Amino acid sequence: MGRSPCCEKAHTNKGAWTKEEDLKLISYIKAHGEGCWRSLPKAAGLLRCGKSCRLRWINYLRPDLKRGNFTEEEDELIIKLHGLLGNKWSLIAGRLPGRTDNEIKNYWNTHIKRKLLSRGIDPQTHGPINGGATAAFAAPHPSETAAPKASATDSCDETNSSGGSQDDDRDGYLDLNLALSISLPHRSPKRSQPSEPLTSAATSSSPQAICLCCHLGFQSSEACSCHTTQNPHVLRVIRRLEEAQH
DNA sequence: AATGTATGCAACCGCGACGAA
DNA sequence: ATTCGTCGCGGTTGCATACAT
């Protein structure tokens, strides 16, 4: 039972994008918006698969991209977020306006890993390279657990009652806005209908609408800004966390 | 100047999640 | 409840460039 290919590979270009292809993609999206990626290439006159178009747009052509070097503040933010979220590059990117998950992932692998190693910090555990001492950013590492999404929430609910070193662990995050009101970069209309009831549920009526920082026990801190978010995607993330718990 | 090696980045691949039928 | 199509994510690859010898 094989999976059908995402596109007709025999008639698609691969590899680096040409200026002409870029222009076609940009002008099409400017005119029609980010619609269905699968049909976009044909409509735009591109011999590319939809995935390739999406990637090119998100990682390179989007007008709101920053480009350029990462600042020291961005470095530190990425390190902290990675300590909390693990290799969830899209979530990390959501906290860094103008940066893409791919860019951050590359930057992590080429720069920050080395930076941490030079500090004597293990880039995966965020703890000291030698010795099993408590990690510098000791939030449960999603990539190290069997159920990453559940672990993030479990760490909140369970450690709140069990105490432990949670308070110590939080110290590294207190200056972070962890209301993962992740401004997921451009969702397709199909998946983020403005008319979806999620918005209102997230902001007012639903008791389920609790931001991740609340889940992590930060609701009494300045880090929590769930009450300010209007982003329906917040609830999407939260809902998944909720589901993972049950 | 030529060659080898390291580095950085763009792009691809495979898989899981999700919604619609 | 199941299947199918699509999207998005994370890991990996491969090319271009920089740097060293």
Automatic annotation (TrEMBL):
Coiled coil: none annotated. Residues 120-171 are annotated as: Disordered. Residues 9-61, 62-112 form the Myb-like domain. It is found in: Nucleus. The keyword Repeat applies. One of its GO terms (cellular component) is nucleus. PROSITE patterns: HTH_MYB, MYB_LIKE. Residues 9-61, 62-116 form the HTH myb-type domain. The keyword Nucleus applies. Keywords: DNA-binding, Nucleus, Repeat, Repressor, Transcription, Transcription regulation. Transmembrane segments: none annotated. Its main location: nucleus. GO terms for molecular function: transcription cis-regulatory region binding. InterPro entries: Homeodomain-like_sf (IPR009057), Myb_dom (IPR017930), Myb_TF_plants (IPR015495), SANT/Myb (IPR001005). This is Myb-like DNA-binding domain.
